[in-house]
Structures are given as C-alpha cells and as structure tokens.
C-alpha cells in the first residue's frame, strides 16, 4: 500500500532470490513501492570492506537515511508496512514462528552447497536431504495447513508468503552442481509430492494477483548461487 509519508524503501541484495525474495514478495503482495537494488557480488564485497554494511552482509533495507540488516527482521518489518502482519498478538506470535521455521529449513538446505566435499559426496548429501531430512520438516508444515484456508486468520499474512517462498526455493536448484543433475532437479521439483495441503497453499498464494504479477516479472537465473553465476545467466 502506497504511503506518501513513508521514506523511500531500498532493498539491496545480490542478483538472485536468496534471502531477499521473501521481502520482495511481501512488498509486492502489499503493493508497497520499493527500489529493488540487485548488486553484483564484487560490489557487495566492496561495500563490506568499506564498512558500509551494518553486519557485513546482505540483504539491507534503507528506510530514508537509515540502513537496516538481517533478512528475516527486514521481512517482518515489510509485513507490517504491507499490512500482512496479523493484528492480534497471539496471531503475530504464530505467524512469526512459522516465518522463523522456514528459515530453519532454508539454512539447512543452503548449507549443503558450501560443504567442502567432492562432487559425488555433495550429490549424496542432496539425495539424503530430499529423501530423508526434508520430508520430516515438510510434514510439520503440512500439519499447520488448513484445507482451503490461509495459515493464520482469514487472510494472507507473512506466514503464507514465507511458506510459499520456502517451497519455491526448495523446488528450484540451489547451486550449479544441483542444476546440472537431472536426478537432483527432479527430486527438488517433486519434493511436495506427498504433501497435498502444502501444494494447495502454495497454489493459493501463487494465485494472489499481486504475487502472480511479481512472479511473472521477476528475474530468472538457472540456480541461486551468486558465486558461480555468470553475467550472461542473469535475466
């Protein structure tokens, strides 16, 4: 929702979805104008070395002349600005707990690409993730879903956006090695197969007009690891 009295919002992150995409989705869902600054990897390093980043990392959110860090704190602020945070304190507690739990899943998944292992061992870690570890987590989210409804209350909240975003990145390649493996891509694409309520919620959120418009226009990359993407692969 546009507010002429609000300072300019500028979200800065790499040229991938990563830890900024939930905030982008929240702003889009709420119709909140913001500058979506997508920064090359080398520019992030320059800002870090120059001491321009509060905690030396992305994303950051500039609100007027103030700069803030930490992706999930930024996303929760965005939810309040966008009208996607519940009014009741207990509903807020529930919604924020769901948001933070999606970060637990993401952190475990993304960590695989940074493991100092040979390629075969990394592939085996991905197989173990999709076949054994991830289903345990997804079952917890499946139990939270209410058929035909949003997760908290009667309308879209940041909790729904967070779970949608979690499903979105789980179903997409995390790195070049995963993207190059048809087997691993198939495991990712089918990871919600045993969780019909999660599938329904994901579709329900994707069909929200403002979110659909964002999904249709957002840049595409073959995977989400900015370290190995070439400039030509950013679209």
Tell me about this structure:
The chain is α+β, with helices and mostly antiparallel strands. It folds into two domains: 9-83, 3-Layer(aba) Sandwich (Glutaredoxin), CATH 3.40.30; 89-217, Up-down Bundle (Glutathione S-transferase Yfyf (Class Pi), Chain A, domain 2), CATH 1.20.1050.10. The protein has ten helices and four strands; from the N terminus they run E-H-E-H-E-E-H-H-H-H-H-H-H-H. Helix 1 (21-30) links the parallel strand 1 (9-14) and strand 2. The longest helix is centred in the middle third of the chain and has 26 residues, at 119-144. The chain is globular and about 55 Å long. It comes from Spumella elongata. Residues 7-86 form the GST N-terminal domain. GO terms for molecular function: glutathione transferase activity. This is Glutathione S-transferase.
**Spatial strand arrangement across the major sheet:** 2-1-3-4
Shape: globular
Q: What proportion strand? A: 5-15%
Order of helices and strands: EHEHEEHHHHHHHH
CATH architecture heading of the largest domain:
Up-down Bundle
- Overall average pLDDT: 93
Structural class: alpha+beta
In angstroms, what separates the terminal alpha carbons? 27 Å
Work out the helicity level: 40-55%
The total tally of domains equals 2
Task: Count every beta strand, where a strand is a DSSP E run of 2 or more residues.
Answer: 4
Q: What is the CATH C-level name of the largest domain?
A: Mainly Alpha
Task: Give me a quick take on this structure.
This protein is an alpha+beta fold. It has helices at 21-30, 41-49, 71-82, 89-110, 119-144, 158-170, 176-179, 182-189, 196-206, 209-217; strands at residues 9-14, 35-39, 60-63, 66-69. It has 2 domains: 9-83, Glutaredoxin (3-Layer(aba) Sandwich), CATH 3.40.30.10; 89-217, Glutathione S-transferase Yfyf (Class Pi), Chain A, domain 2, CATH 1.20.1050.10.
């Amino acid at each position: 929702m546009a507010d002429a009295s609000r300072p300019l919002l500028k979200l800065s992150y790499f040229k991938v979805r990563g830890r900024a995409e939930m905030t982008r989705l929240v702003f889009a869902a709420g119709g909140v104008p913001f500058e979506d600054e997508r920064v090359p990897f080398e520019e992030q390093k320059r800002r870090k070395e120059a001491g321009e980043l509060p905690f030396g990392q992305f994303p950051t959110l500039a609100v007027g002349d103030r700069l803030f860090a930490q992706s999930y704190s930024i996303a929760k602020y965005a939810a309040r600005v966008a009208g996607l945070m519940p009014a009741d304190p207990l509903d807020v507690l529930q919604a924020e707990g769901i948001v933070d739990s999606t970060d637990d899943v993401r952190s475990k998944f993304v960590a695989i690409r940074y493991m100092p292992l040979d390629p075969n061992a990394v592939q085996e870690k991905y197989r173990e993730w999709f076949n054994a570890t991830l289903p345990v987590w997804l079952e917890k989210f499946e139990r939270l879903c209410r058929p035909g409804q949003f997760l908290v209350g009667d309308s879209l909240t940041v909790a729904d956006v967070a779970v949608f975003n979690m499903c979105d990145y789980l179903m997409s390649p995390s790195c070049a090695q995963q993207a190059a493996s048809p087997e691993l891509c198939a495991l990712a694409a089918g990871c919600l197969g045993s969780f019909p309520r999660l599938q329904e919620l994901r579709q329900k959120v994707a069909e929200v007009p403002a979110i659909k418009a964002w999904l249709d226009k957002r840049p595409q990359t073959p995977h989400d690891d900015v370290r190995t993407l070439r400039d030509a692969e950013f679209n």
